[in-house]
Please model this.
Amino acid sequence: MSAALRILQPGLLTTVQDLGRVGYQHLGVPTSGALDPVSLRAANILVGNDPTEGALEIAYVGPTFVIEADGVNLACAGAHASIEVLPDETAASGLRYASMQSFRAQRGQVVRVGPTSEASVVYLAVEGGFDIEPVLGSVSTYIRGHIGGWQGRALAAGDALPLRRNIPSERDELRLDGLDLARPSRFRVVLGPQNASFSERSIKAFLDGEYTIGPATDRMAMHLDGPKLEHIAGHDIISDGIALGSIQVPGHGRPIVLMADRQTTGGYPKVATVISADLPALGRSRIGDKISFQETSIEEAQQLRRTLLHQIDVIPNRIVHTHRVPDDLTACLLANNLISGIVNAQLAPFIE
Amino acid sequence: MTDYNVIAAGDTALVVDFGNQVDLNVSAKVLALAGQLNALKIDGVIETVPTIRSLSIYYEPLTVSPLWLERQVAKILEHLDQAPETGRTCDIPVCYDPELAPDLEQVAAQCNLDPAKVVEIHSSRVYHVYMLGFLPGLAYLGDLSPELALPRRTTPRPRVPEGSLGIGGKLTCIYPMATPCGWHVIGRSPTPLWDPTLSRGALLRAGDKVRFQPLSLREYRRACSDGILAVPQADTSH
Model:
């Protein structure tokens, strides 16, 4: 039997994502890809993968799955999430792990990823990656277009997600300390491309106001509740390209930030565009979070991009090797009710 | 010389905008600019996306500066007289039978025409592919005859089936997959416009020409079961 993760509970919205589908927007194909590419990279690094490998993007409520491989090294990165490895499908409790550390699970064991906190998404990477054929150069899932990922859709109970490796490599567990996943106090934007479609007063209200991320938010669009914007020349425009992070304003006046699964073109004016360095933090923001915006220049945005790329480059330097707890030892302790699990309390992925 | 603006869409995209209009001459410029810019294979340009009124240029700002890119755009546009056409024409079969055309009667009434006349007008033109967008493989075709120009439906449909033929304003399109839709549906095509398993992905490209070939309901059903593919033909005159 080939190696796989068999899904018992899919979670709220669990999809395979990598860094996205580049080069097909002229055919109407959205880029998709991880909402938080920094955490995706971190998860991959924790299991020794290439940082751009596809992983599971888990939103809000995590999946539960059975290991159908001799063993697999796994790691979550991004939001806080409680991860539990249970001895089998009938067990009530098992070993506990946190985000930002690798762990191993064996055949028949059940991995349960709890609800996310602090951020919306957490990425679960498996050593060796998932054995999924890329579509147009990427394994990212674009649900609306049924493209990529696992059968072009979010995971469902009963899916068996194929793994490239059946046997985990023998190595230390890895832990990632001090990755700064804090949100900027205000998300920085460059005005435009259609800021001239709005009154000065509206733009001021937009930059001064506070918005709440609305419940209709998904991988395509972040709906914001807060000060409305007023169009000065109608809200329909002839279709124009849509950059990641562009903020469009339909007739109702409430801004919508266009995210990874955004359509490639659209017909509403866009007041501003969130700068690239702030997009991973925006992508990991949660429904209900309060956010605000601040105007910046292209030059500053590029400087901040440089800083972010440097932070990504040094992730491997922050990796700490820890000794693997022998599987038979933890199993023995658990069997004798000596421990209920192991938690690493030193993890502080969210530095304020 | 051409009137255009280069506008930033954040720090990784530039929009070369020719104004808020649906115009064949503007489209020719957008597509020619895209072609010439892509041919330069500039390091740091990630992809270009032509739309009806603009060209989006996605770039890596740490590799190429937006100011330098803007100068390349200006250089290209200075010498852009006549855009070459892609030279591909695609015949796409469409069935306008009322069974597959829920809005045909209403469109005819609103335009003061017979349904048969609507079909005749719609299927007797050669359309230009302005752009692909909204959904994978969805081509925006124009120009629709002014006799058929209508604003969108006041109430969009939550779902129209794959292959639905829509009209709205100066444009017409075939939906490559089931989708919500605000346009008027006046027919359906058996031709798949999008298939990610094929190397081409989308049947059409911006700059192609499209002709619609009317099918009877019986022919439509046969075409669906036979899985007939339309293939764009190169125009040998180019």
About this structure: Chain B has a mean pLDDT of 91. The first helix of chain B runs from residue 24 to 39. The two ends of chain B are 26 Å apart (CA to CA). The CA atoms of residues 157 and 181 of chain B lie 5 Å apart.
